[in-house]
Amino acid sequence: MPRYPEIEPYENGMLDVGDGNHVHWETCGNPDGKPAVVLHGGPGSGSTPSCRRLFDPAAYRIVLLDQRGSGRSTPHASRPDTDMRVNTTGQLTTDLEELRRHPGIDRWLVRGVSFGSVFALRYAQTHPGVVSELVLTGVATGSDAELTRGLGRIFPEAFERFRSGVPDGERDGNLSAACNRLLESPDPEVRERAARARTDWETAVIPAPPRSVARYEDPVFRMGFARTVTHYRGNGHFLGEGEGESDGAGASGDGVLLRDAHLLKGVPGTLAQGELDFGNLLGSVWRLHHARPDSELVPVGDTGHNAGATGVAEAMVAATGRYARGPAPVRPTRRH
C-alpha cells in the first residue's frame, strides 16, 4: 500500500512538562479518529512530516511530538547550558503521559522507529492499559550488541576512527559515555570535534538517503543529536537498572526490554524490519517477536535501518490500515 498524501497539522503547541522543558506537539488527520502517536528516533532526531503519511487521515487522529531537547522542543540539547540530567527515558515517558492526558485521550496506537521503538516498548511495558497497538520499525531493544562496541565488530574501520577520538585511557571503556564527556566540555572546539566524530560514526554504520545524511551538516542538529544519543547510550538508555554500556564499563540495561516482554501480553503489534538492519542480523527482533505472542513480524527484503524505505513504509501503512478497523488477529511471520 502506498503512503497517504501529505497533510498539515490542524493544531499544535508547546506543552510545559516541567524542569524548564517545553515539548512541541502537533495533531493532524481526523479530530474524531482513532488516536495514534509517533515516537521518533535518535534519540534526538526530532519528528518528521513524512510520518504523518503512514496513517489514513480520515481514520486517525495523528499526534507527533519532538522529545525533550530535540526538534522544536525547548531548551534544545545543542545549547551547552541545557541540563541533560532531566532528559531520561523515564522522563520522556512522563512527558508522553502528560501529552496523552492533555487532550483527554484514553488509549492510542504507538508507532516507534529506532530509538523510538525502545521508547515505545518501555512505555507500553510500564503503561500497557493506554496502548492499543504497537507498530515498530528499525526495531532496537537497547542491547549492548546494538550499541557502539557491538557494531564495531561489523564496522571495524569506522569504529577505530571513532574510538581514536576519545582520550587514551577511555578507549577500552564506555565509548558513548566518553564521547558525551567531550560534548560537555567548556571548550566549543572540543565539543564540535566530538559531535562531528559521533555523526560520522552514525553515517558509517547506518546507511541513509542523502537527505537524512545532509541534516548532520546543520551544526545545531549535529550537536543536539550527538549530545543526546551519547547521553542515552552511555547510560543504557536509562532502562531502570544497571545504566551504561557493558563494553568494559560494568553493567548496563542490556536485556531489560526482552526480559519484560511478557508485560505486553494483550497488546497487539507489528514489527516491520529490514532484513539487512543490524538489529535483525543480531536476532534482537526475532527474539522480541517470539517473546510476544501478540505480535507479527514482517521482514522487508533488501532494506537496512531505513524507516523511509518503500517496503518498510508500505508495511507500516498496511498495519495502521488494519488497526484502524479495530483489534486485528495475530498473523504468522510474513515477508514483504
Automatic annotation (TrEMBL):
Whether Cytoplasm counts among this entry's keywords is yes
Q: Which residues form the AB hydrolase-1 domain?
A: 37-166
Task: Look up the domain of life of the source.
Answer: Bacteria
Question: What's a single GO BP term from this record?
Answer: proteolysis
Cite the InterPro entries for this sequence: AB_hydrolase_1, AB_hydrolase_fold, Peptidase_S33, Pro_iminopeptidase
Q: Which UniProt keywords apply?
A: Aminopeptidase, Cytoplasm, Hydrolase, Protease
Where it sits in the cell: the answer is: Cytoplasm
Q: Which residues form a coiled coil?
A: none
Which reactions does this protein catalyse?
Release of N-terminal proline from a peptide
The name of this protein is Proline iminopeptidase
Tell me the classification of the organism that encodes this protein: Bacteria, Bacillati, Actinomycetota, Actinomycetes, Kitasatosporales
